[in-house]
Amino acid sequence: MMEPEIVIKADNVVKSFGDRTILDGISLEIYKGETFVIMGGSGCGKSTFLRHVIGSLKPDSGKIFLLGKDLSKIDENEMDKVRMKIGMCFQSSALFDSMTVGDNVSIGLREHTKLDKSVIDIVVKMKLEMVGLRGFENLMPSALSGGMRKRVGLARAISMDPEIVFYDEPTAGLDPIVAGVIDKLIVDLSKKLNITSVVVTHDMKSVFSIADRVAMFYEGKVLEIGTPEEMKRSKNPMIQQFTSGSPDGPIRFFQQKDDYLERLVA
Amino acid sequence: MFRFFGRPLGLPQNDVRTSITKVGEMNLFAGIGKIIIGTYRQVVDVFALLFDTIAWLVMGPSKHKSVKREGIFHQAVFVGVGSLAIVFFVSLFTGVVIAMQSAYQLGKFGANIYVAPMVAVSLARELAPVLTALVVAGRVGAAIAAELGTMKVSEQIEALETIALNPVRYLVVPRFLALLIMLPCLTIFADMMGIFGGFLVGVFNLKLDPHRYITFTFQYMMWKDVWTGIVKSVVFAIIISMVGCYMGLGTKGGAEGVGKATTLSVVTSFILIILFDCILTGVFFFANQ
Fold it and tell me: What is the complex's ipTM, to 2 decimals?
């Protein structure tokens, strides 16, 4: 069997903010065409890791390769060329408030291509159709609901036909039906267009319905990487606790007892 | 060189922090040092932003990454046309006030006609550029900081970057250019409106001959008075746009952060405008001797 092509490779990535270490030696590889899910509790560094991969943040040490380019070695121009091949779907949608939905989706095409306006309009219609929002081109983002904004964000992320799409908690705060629609979209994009998807989420239902492989993050480290079935069968008590959503287990929600006392008294 | 200044004066940073948290009070010198270093870094950053902006302006077109005309036009309308009403009122009434105040003194010498050049020269050299800049800093500078700040905290700036659009090129340069073009225009408009305010007082209250009033105005007001005012307004435009954009892009911490950035941008712009007004007036004054 042919070795799968690696599109993203992280090698011992470390990042600290002040004296808090957020990423503590992350190493992983993501293959072309797969749907790779990064899960983990809040504050475990999964969103921060995503920001490193798209080049918004620079690691303190370690290397990240995105589409074969070492992000620490390329300049802003080359980074922009890489960025044209990726799409990012933000947790808060991050739509541009001052533009209509149509302009939000078409911004990449308008700025980076010399396509005619009529062609761009057709592409925008197609992308909005894919997320079920055709006919909403002329609305402002403020007139949309949270789920619709997320879907517009997704349409914008795929407007340039990227090779990799990153999703930061795509289903957080959505009703189950819209969440299911978005999950189906992610799978469709991967299967039909062979787009690599990297999804950060803690929604276990969507993890098991979309993922080809899953990485579990805990306190800035990768606990385990495997298929969803392997995760379900995992002996690791932390992964067991996370997948079952149990409050008791090795992952502590509450502070240590003495910590808490010290804080109260100090 | 920067790294040398960046270090907290030989004190390891951790020591400063532990002394705050544990003892609950800050070493006075460490506190002063922190403020100086913080301010120094901000000044360096603002200049870095200015150089970046100018670099995009000058080098952008050769790399086929020029700034979109619609963006500049949109901002210019907001900065210029949107400020006309407030600049009109401020400068008209300033002209009226200066005319009355100077008539109060000049009247004692029977030199009421000198109200005309008094109003024109003080407006052109000083009041029109400064008052217009202050009004625009309050209106436009605050809007820039609030808009960019909201974009920052709602991940929109990051979204721009992932679409491979540089925020400086896409957001800062149009605002910078719009202010650079429109603030001098507004200043000229303020000159005219102020002179008109003085004219109203001169003709209707002091009973001066309208024709004589206008002749006197242009006899004493030199070109130099006008262009020194324009030079000031150009400098103020740079201050307002850079401070607004810098504060906006540096926003942290949600809605509260946006509020802070907006306030800070207006306060900083006001102080810098007055400071640079003083410096420039000094330069023009001593260069004239």
Answer: 0.84
